[in-house]
Amino acid sequence: MAYSLLCFWIAVITLCSAAQGAPSKKQCSDANLAIDGGHYVLSKNYNEGSVLAYRCPHGYFPYPDKSRRCLGNGMWKPSPRKKPRMECRLVTCPDPLVLDNGSVFPNQERYYLNNKTTYECFSEYTLRGSSSRVCQANGKWSGGTPICSRDTDYCHDPGTPPGARRSGHIFNIDDKVKYRCEGKLTLVGSKERTCQQNGEWSGSEPECYYDYTYDTPEDVAERFGSSLKNNLREEEEESQSQHEKKIRLDKSGNLNIYIALDASDSIDEEHFTKSKEVIKKLIDKISDYEVSPKYQIFFFATKVTEIVNIADFYREKGPTLDEIKDKLDVFEFEAKGNDAGTNIAQAFKTILQSISFVKTQGEKQFLNVSHVILMFTDGGANMGGSPKPKVEQIKDLIYQGDRENREKFLDIYVFGLGDDVWKEEIDEYVTHRDGEKHFFIMQDMQELSKTFDEMLDESNSVGLCGLHKDFDDGRQSTIVRRQPWLAKIVVTHKESAPSNCMGSLVTPRFILTAAHCFKFGDVAEGMMVDLGRYREKVKRYIPHPKYNTTSKVHEGIPEFYDYDVALIELVRDVHVSVDTRPICIPCTTQTSGALKLSGSAVTCKQHEQILLKNQYERATFMSPRREPKHVHLKLGAARESCIEDAKKAKNVTVKNARDIVTDNFLCSGGIEPETDYVACKGESGGAVFVERNSRSVQVGILSWGVKNLCTDSNNNKVLSDESSRDFHINLFKVQPFLKKYLGDGTKDYAPLTFLD
Ligand SMILES: *[C@@H]1O[C@H](CO)[C@@H](O)[C@H](O)[C@H]1NC(C)=O
Ligand SMILES: *[C@@H]1O[C@H](CO)[C@@H](O)[C@H](O)[C@H]1NC(C)=O
Ligand SMILES: *[C@@H]1O[C@H](CO)[C@@H](O)[C@H](O)[C@H]1NC(C)=O
Ligand SMILES: *[C@@H]1O[C@H](CO)[C@@H](O)[C@H](O)[C@H]1NC(C)=O
Ligand SMILES: *[C@@H]1O[C@H](CO)[C@@H](O)[C@H](O)[C@H]1NC(C)=O
Question: Which cysteines are joined by disulfide bonds (predicted)?
Answer without folding.
Answer: 121-148, 181-208
